[in-house]
Amino acid sequence: YSKRINNGGSAPSDNIIFGNRAHKTRAQGTSTQDGDNSTTAFTIAHGLLEAPDRFTISKGGALTQVIDYITVDATNITVNFDAAPPSATGNVILNWSASYDVDTTVN
User: Which residue, 99, 82, 98, 5, is CA-closest to 42?
Assistant: First the structure.
C-alpha cells in the first residue's frame, strides 16, 4: 500500500508513505512541568492520531512522589501522583514514550 500525500498546497508532494496510513504511530520525549504543591495530575500531549496501546513513563530529577495511575486518550497521557509535587520551576520531569499498532488488513 502506498499513497501520495498532500503537503498542504494545491498539488500533492513527491513524498510517498508506505504502509502506515500517513500518520505518526510512535512518539517519545521528556515533559518538564512546574510543581505547585497542589496539582497531582500532569498532562503530556503525545501527538499521535489515536490513543496509544503501549506507553512508558519514568520519573526524572529528584521527584519523590509515587505515580498513582496513568490514563491515555487520543490526545494526551495524564500522569496522576499520590501527592502533589512541591512548588518549584521545572521539578516535574517525566520521560515518556507511546505507540500503537496500525491495522494493516487490506479489504
Answer: 82
